């Protein structure tokens, strides 16, 4: 059965789908009664299934749902391929799936079937569908996703998830190599529409349509640190630390960076030597010429504007006055953001997970519906993950984040936009 619709908007879903399929295929979907998704595990089928459910009201049926949550709930995730009873198990799953799909189509519902659909078992599903619909009302959406892209997706998850995926992927790859499985072709199904996903590098995942709010970090995220930017800021922090620490500048500098590595916040480092970190940051920030150090970034403004269907909130370790100065220097109007949350007005500091929970509660959005975007794993990514948020790491790669981007502008790609 399909999960309840909880997507951001049809507009977002249409944007993603339009980037994945040819225009004529997107138009054809308007008139179809049934779609079978066809591809290896991890190829992106679930994402498209959810998109079809959101845009067109397709009822989604999944082999995973029936196999893992109903018929074989005690079985480890996707491990049927390693059991001697695999063929019997798969037959029972598809038999039940075909029964449910056929019943839905006969009741006048539109359906999308999320499964590998690479072998003869798909004929059971087609038979059930064609008992109540014509072949012209049915389509396959084929996913020939490159292995490196699927591998990259699972590297973002845990090592256990990676092992599970690799085990099942190898099984299906070998099954196909032996001639026991294949992608559908026009000669096999002459009256059924074949649609092929045309863009596999688009960073879409099945959780993307659930996102309602983007939680943005500022420093190092909206702009990259350079020696020109870092030196005057770090110099002031280290001077304050050295004065309180009471040792040589060399020893103090080394100790400062070691504590920063452990604590994940320069404000907390100052707190660790008895200073009022928030007050020190407010005092020092007045001396930093952000207006000359930062440059206007039209592309960044366009990135945020392109995602207007979402809420945008800033969460940063500084004062409101300093944040306002940075935004103005970057050319970002404050009305781009639904809220600007600064830790000097909050009960916690980054990287405390409680700060992220506080931000979610303040905005009235569930953590799992928030995408936290930042450039530091310890400060931005890990605490956000700990409270259940989705995470995007920018200006590099992270195995901790749900997704990584080479630039901050590519965050728009996650929602089917290009800036």
Q: And the CATH topology of the largest domain?
A: Rossmann fold
Q: In terms of per-residue confidence, which ranges show pLDDT below 50 for 5 or more consecutive residues?
A: 1-8, 76-84
Question: Could you spell the SSE succession in H and E letters?
Answer: HHEHEHHEHEHHEEHHHHHHEHEHEHEE
Share of helical residues: 40-55%
Radius of gyration: 25 Å
Describe it for me?
With 419 residues, the protein is α/β, with parallel strands linked by helices. The chain folds into three domains: 10-202, 3-Layer(aba) Sandwich (Rossmann fold); 213-224 and 294-415, HAD superfamily/HAD-like (Rossmann fold); 228-290, no CATH class. It contains 17 helices and eleven strands. The chain has helices at 10-20, 23-29, 45-56, 63-71, 86-106, 121-130, 147-155, 159-177, 227-245, 249-263, 266-271, 277-285, 290-293, 298-306, 320-330, 353-363, 377-386; strands at residues 34-39, 59-62, 111-114, 138-143, 193-196, 213-216, 311-316, 339-342, 370-374, 390-394, 403-405. The strands form two sheets. Strands 8-7-6-9-10-11 form a six-stranded parallel beta sheet, with helices on one face. It has a five-stranded parallel beta sheet with strand order 2-3-1-4-5, with helices on both faces. α4 (63-71) crosses α5.
Which features does this protein show?
single chain, 419 residues, alpha/beta, Rossmann fold, 3 domains, 6-stranded parallel sheet, 5-stranded parallel sheet, 46% helix, disordered N terminus
